[in-house]
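Task 17 of the worksheet. Students: predict the tertiary structure of the chain below and write it out as structure tokens. Keep your answer in the requested format; marks are given for formatting as well as content.
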Amino acid sequence: MKQTLSHYRRIFRDIDGEGADTLFLLSGSERFIMEELASKIVATHVPGDLAGFNLTVMYGSDTDIEEFVATASSFPFLAEKRVLVIRELERMRGGWKRLVGYCENPSPSSVVVFLFNTHDESGRRIRPPREMRAIEKAVESHGRIVRFERLDERDTIDWAVRKADRQGVELDGDAAAVLVRSVGGNLYDVQNEIDKLALLFEGGRASGAEITAILGSYRVDAVWDLIDRIVPGREADALDLLGRIISTGAEKPSVVLYHLIRHFLSLLKAKAGIGGGGWAFERVKRQAGRFKT
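Model answer:
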């Protein structure tokens, strides 16, 4: 089942204003818009200068449920609310009954946002835990459940036009259609291409023919896109892109292998605390933190 842009606009408008909700369960297959709504909830409750004190972000596979409950039950620092975000809740190992217990009696001074992906990167449905219905029931009593389904092609094209416009690029319907049909309906992939177009056509207009020519010229970018996808949970996505790079001849296998070796060496160094500072190092360090070893 597909969803419409107007549906999501209503949801974002409803989130405006702090409200009394203490629990949010964001669930579905449309991860990009789900993450945008999570960011909006965070921004609504946590001032930027206090995020270091009152914002906690966890990932399901790394979540210590006792640490989560202790943090959620503690008072915020110089603010009315503390916000906790658990991404990839579907990957949490154990602790589900304890989580149900918290959701049945949540702290009034904390806002908790759960992101539950219902499908993996290959599109296969993820089996929810047995306790999921109990969690949903508790969330319904103290907050909101928001379902996220992917946009149909027409709304994806409209979405691309609006996103490009915000980044200073004018796309007509034909140009946006070429873009969406070239990269598919994954909004992360569409946004990635819009970011590139924003650099090439800053303040200008891109035609369908120009986009066709440009999309066919992304050789090195394809490798960087592959590297960005090499994180736990996106294995199928990374393998799919690797297959397309090799099958289309976008890059030689030896070049891909060279960049992958360099990338994993960088991850190992970052994991060991070896390296400089700056934005690039911090980005690699964050990615390295997603790996167990």
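Marker's comment: The chain has 14 helices and seven strands. The mean pLDDT is 85.
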